[in-house]
Amino acid sequence: SFWRKMRLFSVLPLYYVGIVTLFCVLHTVESCNESVCASIVSKCMLIKACNCDMADIKNCACCKDCQKCLSKLYTECCSCIGLCKVPNAEENLLNTSSVEDLTDPLPDLFNVLTEEPDFEERWVSFSYPYHQDALIFKPDHGMLDLSSGSRDIDRLDDVTDPEQNCTVAFMSQCLSLRKCKVACQSMGAARYRWFHDHGCCQCIGSTCISYGKNSPHCLKCPDPDDQDDLNDDNLNNAVNDLPEDNDNDDDDNDNDLDDDDDDDDDILDDDKIDDVV
């Protein structure tokens, strides 16, 4: 029993060191979910599966063992020990979007509608060289592909003239995803891109190999932070534009009714006087 106690006392310092290390690690990373990661991170630190310098991932001696130790909680907890970047909680969805290839596009119709500015400003068109489109083509650039299958290779084969321009059209008003698809189909577009935060709709011509521009350019579709802004002046103007209170009208109507009743009473009194006479 003596030696058992001695072994216990020899382990306790390591245990406390591990707890202190875990406490420091979890509190230096603000986005670390302590309730989820505390137990697994403590275990991985104690068995020294994640106890190495992770500043240089290429030469990280324990990264493989660490990710195995974190197991199913790797995504949630890797930032707690510096194995991955800390998620940016303030990162917005400005450039995230949904895309889809449309069936039976009408290139001639799309070209006719976009070759000149729309006189009603229902949309605004942009054209840029095909080779630029090829250089900026990023299939995984914050996009959710709604198509049933990928046609990137076919799209490359369809373009025969490398000097052709890629033409896209941004609808001026914010649209829902369904209305965006319908609008682009009606223009003869080959595909569309719908930006999540804005509701900005981009229709893309058949000569483009990518899904158009990576940022929204809708004329009358404001930024998400500006959509709900209503300053005091606008609020006062809105209130002033409202019709006058109906209660006043009701009071006036009640007064008119009272006056009519008084007139009727006067008429009745005159009739009674005539009868008496």
Regarding quaternary structure, what we see is single chain
The total of helices stands at 11
The proportion of strand residues reads: 5-15%
Largest sheet: 6 strands, mixed
Number of domains: 2
Helix share bin: 40-55%
Number of strands: 6
Strands across the major sheet, in which order? 2-4-6-5-1-3
Give the termini distance in whole angstroms. 131 Å
Q: Which shape, going by the Cα principal axes?
A: elongated
Average pLDDT, to the nearest integer? Answer: 71
Question: Which key terms come to mind for this protein?
Answer:
277 residues, alpha+beta, 2 domains, six-stranded mixed β-sheet, 11 helices, 6 strands, elongated, disordered C terminus, developmental protein, Tsg_N
